[in-house]
Design a protein that fits this description.
Layout: E1 7-11, E2 32-33, E3 36-37, H1 38-49, E4 53-58, H2 62-70, E5 77-82, H3 91-98, H4 100-103, E6 108-112, E7 115-119, H5 127-133, E8 142-148, E9 152-153, E10 161-163, E11 169-171, H6 172-175, E12 182-190, H7 193-197, H8 211-218, E13 222-227, E14 229-233, H9 237-249
Parallel strand pairs: 1-4, 1-6, 4-5, 8-13, 9-14
Antiparallel strand pairs: 2-3, 6-12, 7-14, 8-12, 10-11
Length: 251
């Protein structure tokens, strides 16, 4: 049984092009949903789960994001990984690799800032705890938090993964399937050392060619946990409006 890591990587450097015009003057992380910036939703989830330190990467409108985080008054220690020396954000894997000196070599949580959810279970805010509790580094390189396709909004794909009875994941594109029942929610626990050792500077974790997740999938080391609840992917203005309406209805 793995406890919730004390350190999390928050991926907030993206350009947010699909969220325009809401990101014409701010990073996607500062778009508000339910009266609160997206990054504040993420930080609150991490704090509730017991994370103590959040490493946040910044690129697009970095000054605004850094200023916002400078006013953070919650329990987390905030560390900035500034990517502005690069022409473009470093993508998911590159962003984690660039922050290696802040993260350490123990398992870490990784969280996108465009993910908002409402859990069924009481008390709420247990999905991250359960995700980490089931992470076994001997058998797993990475464990993803997943949502049912039928309880997802703001996601226009055909689903991301199928899951075996033991929790192992197969990507829809690997299976060459027309659809898959589960979506990746933008949160996972991972052994970061293979990411730090990856030879590229700018790279995604699961690009079309497979990437690190594809390799772990092929080795049977990519696992998942399905969250019982409603997941809102806040990727564009319409999805933001849908998420805001869902949050207003409550549990």
């Amino acid at each position: 049984m793995t406890s919730v890591p004390k350190t999390a990587m928050v991926l907030a450097a993206g350009l947010g092009t699909r969220m325009r015009p809401l990101t014409d003057d701010r990073p996607k992380a500062l778009v508000e949903v339910g009266g609160k910036a997206l990054i504040d939703h993420t930080l609150a989830r991490l704090a509730e789960a017991g994370v103590e330190r959040a490493v946040v990467n910044a690129h697009a409108f970095a000054d605004r994001l850094i200023a916002h985080l400078g006013g953070y008054s919650g329990p987390l220690e905030i560390v900035i990984s500034d990517e502005r020396q690069h022409a473009l954000p470093l993508e998911t894997g590159g962003g984690i690799k660039a922050a290696a000196t802040h993260l350490g070599e123990a398992p870490i949580l990784v969280a996108n800032i465009d993910s908002v959810w409402i859990e069924d279970q009481e008390p709420p805010a247990r999905a991250i705890d359960d995700l980490c509790a089931g992470f076994d580094p001997e058998r797993m390189s990475c464990r993803l938090l997943l949502a049912h396709m039928g309880r997802t909004t703001g996601f226009d794909g055909a689903g991301d993964f199928m899951q075996a009875d033991d929790g192992r994941l197969t990507a829809r594109r690997t299976a060459k399937a027309a659809s898959a029942p589960l979506n990746y929610m933008g949160v996972h626990i991972v052994d970061p050392r293979p990411i730090f050792a990856y030879p590229e500077t700018e790279f995604g974790l699961f690009p079309a060619g497979g990437g690190l997740w594809g390799g772990w999938e092929a080795e049977g080391r990519l696992y998942g946990l399905v969250m019982e609840g409603d997941w809102m992917h806040v990727g564009d203005p319409e999805a933001r409006d849908v998420a805001e309406a869902r949050l207003a209805r409550g549990r």
